[in-house]
Amino acid sequence: MATNASAICKFSDGSISYLRNAVTLDARTELLTDSSGLVNQAGGLSVGQANQGKTLTHCQIKVQTDSATTGCFSYAVGIGVGGNVEFAIQGGSTQTSGLTRLKRPVRMMTGMKIEVFCQALADAVQYGSLAVYCASGKVDVFQGLAVDDTDVSMTSIISGSTIGEALVGQQVVCWYATYPATNGLADTGVADGVSAFFCEDAQGQLKSMMFASGGFSYNQPVQWVDDSFRISQNDTLTIRANV
Q1: What are phi and psi of 167, to 5 degrees?
Q2: Taking the complete model, does pTM exceed 0.90, yes or no?
Q3: Domain with 122 in it
């Protein structure tokens, strides 16, 4: 069964851009303007090229699997012309509704893209994803493929760095976390897994813990969680599953 993702983008001038594309599960896929001819817009374009000079204020992603509800949202990002994460986008699956405001507006330019990472709902180890905003405006997403009864370091989707290396000196102000396993992150007892992602300093002291959404809410997109913790160079972000 194929899975597709859609994005509705709203700009400060009131205009709308509709992006849609079939996605490759467990990989980032760019969403382009819809080319079905069912809506009145030029199709097959990146968001920046299609909306050059406009300011994006609202955006939301929906994931849909053909004749099924197994497609799950993990994260979505706006990628800048230099390849960095410019903004993070909320999303969900199937019947998710509402158009959410970005944490900060972003001016579009040619070369900017919207990319989404989707997974299939299953009772198995999955990719855990954490999108973060910092007080400075810096944005990044950290991800790790969980392993049963094992600590896995979550690293930046862009640089491959740990959270300490990627965000040294930054103050995290909010995040959203996803892990689309049918029975959750640690579902076979308390001995082997941890039911949340956890950020620690070099001495192993906890700085933050993040319960993860499954990414398949029927009623609302994955929500931002307000938080406040400062990142030091040797901090780590860990996912530990058991199934």
Answers
A1: -125, 25
A2: yes
A3: 3-240
